[in-house]
Amino acid sequence: MQLDIGVVGFGRAGAAVAVALADAGHRLVGVSVRSAAAAERAERWLPAAQHLPVAELATRVDVLVLAVSDDALGPVAVTVAHPGGPGGPRPGTVVAHLSGRHGLGPLTPVVARGAYRAAIHPIMSLAGLDPAADAGRLRGTTFGVTADPAATPVARRLVADLGGRTVEVPDEARTIYHAAIVLGANYLAALAGAAADLLTGVGIDDARAALAPLLRVSLDNALRDGDAATTGPVRRGDAGTVAAHLAALLAAEPTVVPAYVSLARLAAQRLETSGLLAAPAAATLRAALDGADRA
Ligand SMILES: NC(=O)c1ccc[n+]([C@@H]2O[C@H](COP(=O)([O-])OP(=O)(O)OC[C@H]3O[C@@H](n4cnc5c(N)ncnc54)[C@H](OP(=O)(O)O)[C@@H]3O)[C@@H](O)[C@H]2O)c1
Is the CB of residue 72 below 6 angstroms from any atom belonging to ligand 1? Predict the structure, then answer.
């Protein structure tokens, strides 16, 4: 069944999800945006959608997607609910957001209007440079969904229409769920950047290209085989190599030392727990890493 959908905010995620929902056959009846830049983007990518104030848009749709920044969700939900005023969602409307961090809490103002809440978070990076390409990336993406029971079928259906897969996330687990994703994705980018900078610093041209095959294979192996895929000095128990790394990094780029130490400790702990690193070797590695803390 075709649903009438409205989108509040037309940034990176809002544009991708709106374009994908329209491609899936839903009626994108309207958008509500703040800046001229967002209005221009919406006109380009959703030319048939009307531009409406939030509370008016909320009245006209079956599903209202709040695609605003995390911190704006609470205040925007108050505007959607429009307490004491005309407009606002009709009873049974599903008001959804796309945030990973938040569960249903910020959407609570709409409950007083008889609306149902859903958090529908695509576990995907949507850069916003090409909303059509971002929309395509949602196909095959997993979505972390937390929803009021009455909104769950609609949330699941929207994810299925986008070609995605639903995993249900308990409301109280939302922050740790998001922390896990940020740890795995955003900080991976910081790590790759730091590794490339260190290689550039020793004169290697096109350091990212030099690292790319290794990083891709390491990631593929880790996602497929878990801790057993770990290679390198911690896996081998080469505490001397780890100590030499720390001394070299302290001299060349001390800002990366805390990250190196923390990740080496994490790797040692995981490998030891899964029986892939003997306890004495883990203890020797920890002693080398403790030395960095004292330096
Ligand atoms: N991008 C991703 O990779 C990604 C992936 C998964 C989930 N998400 C989630 O999607 C949501 C949006 O993120 P984004 O990356 O799309 O951010 P974004 O590109 O910065 O877009 C945010 C949009 O919200 C609007 N906005 C912000 N504050 C507002 C307010 N107080 N009232 C009305 N509109 C407001 C902005 O309007 P202006 O254009 O006027 O500034 C902009 O259109 C977030 O909850 C985020 O966690 C993002």
Answer: yes
- How remote is the CA of residue 14 from the centroid of ligand 1, in Å? 7
What's the structural domain count of the chain? Answer: 2
Is the CB of 143 inside a 6 Å radius of any atom of ligand 1?
no
| DSSP letters spanning 244-270 | HHHHHHHHH-GGGHHHHHHHHHHHHHH
- For residue 203, what is the domain's CATH number? 1.10.1040
Residue nearest to atom 41 of ligand 1 (CA): 35
Using CA atoms, how far apart are residues 142 and 152, in angstroms rounded to an integer? Answer: 16
* Residue 150 shares a structural domain with residue 203: no
If asked whether residues 190 and 255 sit together in one domain, one would say: yes
Of ligand 1's listed atoms, the one at least distance from the Cα of 125 is 3
Query: Token pair of 52, please?
Result: 């409406």
Domain span at residue 19 reads 4-169
Residues 25 and 216: their CA atoms lie apart, in Å, by 36
Q: pLDDT 10s per residue in the chain (295 long)?
A: 899 999 999 999 999 999 999 999 999 999 999 999 999 999 999 999 999 999 999 999 999 999 999 999 999 999 999 887 788 999 999 999 999 999 999 999 999 999 999 999 999 999 999 999 999 999 999 999 999 999 999 999 999 999 999 999 999 999 999 999 999 999 999 999 999 999 999 999 999 999 999 999 999 999 999 999 999 999 999 999 999 999 999 999 999 999 999 999 999 999 999 999 999 999 999 999 998 766 6
